[in-house]
Specification:
By secondary structure, this protein is mainly α. Helix content is about 80%, strand content about 0%.
């Protein structure tokens, strides 16, 4: 189980780095916004699955993103449960975005809010892995 967590952690670290690189590019074109949103979707999926794996390792069951976030918040794996729920809602909205303004609004939330929560998770999981 620990090996799977370590592998998922590395995948998450790489995805987060890729998302950060995308956010460094000025969003002068919709294709950049779309690319960042796609990287965000992938990073979020890895994030909640990493939470789920860590929770299971610690004896806590979480079968959905919402339950993983709630349990992760409860045990201090994430510090902003509401922020993570908001991020989950944005992730769900990205599959149905056909409006350029809405896509840009989510892009801005990724850049201003979500990226910080994703980075915090990386640090907190790294600390947990050292204790496993």
């Amino acid at each position: 189980m620990k090996e799977r967590i370590t592998e998922r952690f590395e995948d998450y670290r790489k995805a987060l780095k890729s998302l950060e690189e995308g956010l460094q590019i000025e969003p002068y074109d919709d294709i950049i916004v779309d690319g960042v949103i796609q990287r965000f979707e992938f990073t979020f999926e890895l994030a909640w699955k990493l939470m789920k794996d860590c929770l299971e390792y610690e004896g806590i069951e979480a079968k959905s993103p919402r339950s993983a976030i709630k349990e992760a918040y409860r045990i201090g794996m994430v510090s902003d449960g509401d922020g993570w729920i908001d991020m989950m809602i944005d992730r769900n909205r990205t599959s149905h975005i056909y409006d350029e303004n809405e896509a840009r609004a989510i892009y801005k939330k990724i850049k201003v809010n979500h990226i910080h929560l994703l980075k915090e998770l990386l640090n907190k999981i790294q600390q947990r892995l050292e204790g496993y």
